[in-house]
């Protein structure tokens, strides 16, 4: 692994522009090297933050970007729980992206068929990789330490062969979802967690400073050959005792 950077911002107001710069700088690098930029998205509060900040970037050009989803809820796209649906209304509809640049699930399928269908789409988009190698994955973390739809003590944490796995018993509704597996997450060239708010302070300490017993899912994100960022605000970092970087408004990663 190229190393873990824990970067603390005064608040999410300063974090957002730095995240957008990280995305666009990795995009420029990827397009120069490989002719395209592959970005894996997560839902939750990340949707509005990322959409707002990317749309504020001057000369944003997404024509060579390919978007995937780190996990997705098995609901129709017009359901407020649909991560794709949220990004479509807040971001995709406002920029020029070819249809082939957005890899979505088929919500009309059963959860098992949906996972297989999404696996096929990723294999087609990444034909040369055993596991898809995204340029950047953006991840969130729940108060229980889950990331993607990989939950504590769930059998999917041990999945080593599947690219996309179905889950029918998510402890967080809706119960049916599909999720990237750890082999895919840890194959990425860059991974960035975004975690904000005081409600995340205790679990962030457990994830970053270790805990007794099994590692929480977010702590198992260790890119094999990639870089790992934790972008957090002061309230989320309140309990940390490890060395961190502190960046001020306007700073770039």
Automatic annotation (TrEMBL):
<dbReference type="Pfam" id="PF01182">
    <property type="entry name" value="Glucosamine_iso"/>
</dbReference>
<dbReference type="InterPro" id="IPR037171">
    <property type="entry name" value="NagB/RpiA_transferase-like"/>
</dbReference>
<dbReference type="InterPro" id="IPR039104">
    <property type="entry name" value="6PGL"/>
</dbReference>
<feature type="domain" description="Glucosamine/galactosamine-6-phosphate isomerase">
    <location>
        <begin position="12"/>
        <end position="230"/>
    </location>
</feature>
<comment type="similarity">
    <text>Belongs to the glucosamine/galactosamine-6-phosphate isomerase family. 6-phosphogluconolactonase subfamily.</text>
</comment>
<dbReference type="InterPro" id="IPR006148">
    <property type="entry name" value="Glc/Gal-6P_isomerase"/>
</dbReference>
<dbReference type="GO" id="GO:0006098">
    <property type="term" value="P:pentose-phosphate shunt"/>
</dbReference>
<keyword id="KW-0378">Hydrolase</keyword>
<comment type="pathway">
    <text>Carbohydrate degradation; pentose phosphate pathway; D-ribulose 5-phosphate from D-glucose 6-phosphate (oxidative stage): step 2/3.</text>
</comment>
<dbReference type="GO" id="GO:0005975">
    <property type="term" value="P:carbohydrate metabolic process"/>
</dbReference>
<comment type="function">
    <text>Hydrolysis of 6-phosphogluconolactone to 6-phosphogluconate.</text>
</comment>
<protein>
    <recommendedName>
        <fullName>6-phosphogluconolactonase</fullName>
        <ecNumber>3.1.1.31</ecNumber>
    </recommendedName>
</protein>
<dbReference type="GO" id="GO:0017057">
    <property type="term" value="F:6-phosphogluconolactonase activity"/>
</dbReference>
<dbReference type="InterPro" id="IPR005900">
    <property type="entry name" value="6-phosphogluconolactonase_DevB"/>
</dbReference>
